Amino acid sequence: MKIINNISLMGYDGVLTEGHLSDEMTQIVVPENSSFSGNILHVSGDIHLKVILDGENSNFDIRIIYLSNKNSKNSIKVEVLHKHKNTTSSYIIRGILADSSEMVLDGIIRIPKDSQKCDGYLNHRAVLLSDNAKVKATPELEIYADDVKCSHGSAVGALDENLLFYLMSRGIDAEEGKRLLLKSFLSDSLADSFEMYIDEWMDKNV
Amino acid sequence: MAFLEIKNLCARVENKEILKDFSLTINEGEVHAIMGPNGSGKSTLSNVIAGHPAYEITAGSITFKGKDLLAMRADERANSGVFLAFQYPTELPGVGTALFFKTAINAKRKFLGLPDLDAVQFMKRLKMRATALGITDEMLKRPVNVGFSGGEKKKMETFQMAFLEPDFCILDEMDSGLDIDALKVVSNGVNIMREPHRSFLLITHYQRLLDYIVPDFIHIMVNGKIVESGDKTLALHLEEKGYENYK
Ligand SMILES: Nc1ncnc2c1ncn2[C@@H]1O[C@H](COP(=O)(O)OP(=O)(O)O)[C@@H](O)[C@H]1O
Ligand SMILES: [Mg+2]
Question: Inter-chain contact B95–A180, Cβ cutoff 8 Å?
Fold first, then answer.
């Protein structure tokens, strides 16, 4: 069974809906002059999310946090299609991997030829808590328009030893220090509603 | 029993020998200053005393209040009374300054077998020294060091020191990047902490700091070891002659 927990998606109508993403592709269509904003907390399973910016001046931002542990192997695929000009997209993805868990992450920003003046952003960062955890991240751009702004990036690594030392030099033990650093790491993508769940996860896995 | 005793210490980082047979004894209540050119190993020494895991100790010992400091983790050293004010303090986005202070003080209290401070006691202690160091409420609300100027970061380090009340304080290049007003504020913050049971190690490149915090002893460090020691007048000689003579 694949469960994806605690998804809260703030739709362009401003209504917060909580639900589950299915195994198959979930598609979000944003009409013209509309915004869509969402937070996803992923703890297991394979998800495939596609956003279509389906009219001029449509935009979305989605923040995804994933937490992996044990020997789980999961995947996340996110896509955006800038179908019209003057559209903006933002995927911020933050992952924490413990034990020997593995994550495969694919992200694609598509901007067809006539979609000028679009802004696409995809940023992925992951922290490996163990030497055996792995992430394979492949961010891709498919851009055919010439007047666009687009950036993507991915960075994966262990917690910064110097940051942890700073906390420990103030008397904070390694475990508590790591937790503070992970909270710091997640701070630009964290929704309040996830906080309790993430705290519990850290109690067990950090 | 010496308060802090460093004996024949050799330390390396990434296979590079940085501290070479370094020895220094500091007694209770004393203020020592180490001066030296860039790259002589001053920050390495502070990191080694505070317990940075990247530095490998290849020989020698450090005892602090009779205990083997090198056998302790960095957090244990801190809770035993060692404090390092960093040359380059770290920014921690998303970690509130107040939460950071609270976590640190309660870790120390736990180590000492004391109960956590409650919210009221905590705020009282936090506010007590904040004003003296020009730490505003607004700064306390921000994440740790995020968006602070170089000078504000140094004030925050000194404030952490005042708040945690350590017995041995290492101040690594506390004067770098400070204008004269900030330097006075920070020096005053240090001077009011001078007490018979508390010792200091000031690390600096310049003599200027030592006009404001007057040390009992000055040591000149070049290439990983102390090459000359003396009283406060040593800094004046250095001002005239520079480090060139020691190379
Ligand atoms: N973490 C480190 N990794 C690699 N080299 C280092 C590290 N820390 C210090 N060094 C090297 O050790 C030498 C001494 O540096 P440092 O202790 O910072 O000197 P100072 O503080 O006196 O300027 C320099 O050559 C520096 O490049
Ligand atoms: Mg230095």
Answer: yes
